[in-house]
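Revision sheet: structure tokens.
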Amino acid sequence: MQNRARFLYIGDIMGESGLALVERELPKIKAEHKLDCIIAQAENVSFGRGCSADDFARLRRAGVDFCTGGNWSLWQKSILPQLNDPAQPIIRPANYPKDTPGLGWKYIETRFGKVLVISLLGKTVGRDSKTILSNPLMTVDEILLAQSSVEKAAVIVNFHGDYSSEKVVIGHYLDGRVSAVIGDHWHVPTADGRILPGGTAHQTDAGMVGILNASLGVDVSVIIDRWRDNKMVPNRLAQTGPLQFNGFIFEVDTNTHLAVTAKSINLTYN
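Predicted:
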């Protein structure tokens, strides 16, 4: 009986360009890499802010099995029923205050068995930098302890944050205890995808899906006006130009729950 499951974690999907690219290319990527389970960071899907119920449905139809969360997870109110429903495969960060809508961890059923997916928010993340958050290390410890008796094929942790130090440290903190720890939020892929000494797959940041020649998916001219001329202009998503698809592929031995292979994928399309 096969005991190795192949996962793809897709970096932040940014706006309509990113969503359309996932719809177009994911079936090919899934077939080429013989993927068993696909997880995507969906907190920027709908106009760069959150993920609407309609766009969540589009991701599911495209082949995404589960969506992780970040600091924009609660922006699109239409997704709240799905965030609250344990059977719907989308989560927001688990270390938000206790009265926050939605759930921060859920299970997904695969042919290998249950997979536990957890999202966590770093100490400093954009608009939520002043939000009082639970300690992410203590939060993940509490979840793992509470779910220790549940039979699982894998445990995957997403860490959404600005500090590379936090993303690296939590990888080592959980090394040997979970299958993978993947960072995101930067929209720039790091070159450190690997298996840590204890057997946990780790990448500091998985990157993004969307327009390549942009500032993290935002029109560069907007950022220049804001930076150089101090104009308080709103973000405008880039719409045209080459596209990028960044992610992290790792294979898990479902008997040990630890990773056996890990590699980044960084694809561009004209």
